[in-house]
């Protein structure tokens, strides 16, 4: 990847805000329902915290997340999506006429995380030393993907794969996708340093916006291309690579054959010379760009780098991560995005309390006099 030109944002206050998340969530739900928070043993850090209501079933964290985001969620065929960008200006985007995906696909979609390494946060948790401030970008990205799947009802898998002995670890992607695609209409894969910018915006809306059609087996975003370094992210034909850090894989008649050819590429079975990319940059990504996409041209959808790659501060190719962000550098900003998404969802109902004076929290003082 090409280096960013933007400054690194401060992380001060990140832990404090994130640490308040669950307090706000459970406090809000306790206020919303005449319920009582269940007590927790002092010696436990039980993750399935619950809210109990008389006559109502317990609510797990899965349902709490869904309820929290329900007021924010965008419909798959919502004609317009508006958001406030980093410049604090309002941006509105419109779907094409007669969008294809009009209903949530739920469990027909798999959000896939794929790693050869264990999560450091799991080891910390098991040792009783879990701390948000020390959470690395890998766990931050995985948590973000999982929360996103809960919000929209997608299936989710975190796959621990064994590494190859004769090629780079990232070569696990084609075979892992092939092992699961038959069970789903779509698999959406993200690297741990990639994330959805808006948790409340569903995949179906983005598929409509990008015009992903039934014949598209794989959708990826282009990498940045810099005329001052034209060979860096380009193949032997000077065509810009697509980035495998975010992929939409659709189950159609061409997908399994494409994944098979991709997986076998470094064995030089069909593509002589592909073994060059067993270890050099960018491994499976270079092989896809050099060989696979040319045999499956009609079934590969390439997205602008600005929409599904990069992050704020990257000027090359305007790779600002409009919908999907990929932090090639400054990876800790994954945690900032997660924090901002959660805090936006939490503070919306709090703001509604003050805007609508729920419970009479606002008292109008007509005269500024001392009591007699």
TrEMBL record:
- GO MF term list: glycosyltransferase activity
Q: Which GO terms describe its cellular component?
A: Golgi membrane
Keyword Transmembrane recorded:
yes
Q: Which domain of life is it from?
A: Eukaryota
Which residue intervals define the domain Nucleotide-diphospho-sugar transferase in the entry? 171-296
Recite the UniProt keywords alphabetically: Glycosyltransferase, Membrane, Transferase, Transmembrane, Transmembrane helix
Q: Which residues cross the membrane?
A: 12-31
GO BP of this protein: protein N-linked glycosylation
Q: Does the keyword Iron-sulfur apply?
A: no
The record's InterPro entries line, in alphabetical order, gives: Glyco_trans_34, Nucl-diP-sugar_transferase, Nucleotide-diphossugar_trans
Name of one Pfam family that matches: Nucleotid_trans
Annotated family: Belongs to the glycosyltransferase 77 family. Belongs to the glycosyltransferase 34 family.
Checking PANTHER family in the record gives: ALPHA-1,6-MANNOSYLTRANSFERASE MNN11-RELATED, NUCLEOTIDE-DIPHOSPHO-SUGAR TRANSFERASE DOMAIN-CONTAINING PROTEIN
Instruction: Provide the protein name.
Output: Nucleotide-diphospho-sugar transferase domain-containing protein
**Organism this protein belongs to:** Bimuria novae-zelandiae CBS 107.79
| Organism phylogeny | Eukaryota, Fungi, Dikarya, Ascomycota, Pezizomycotina
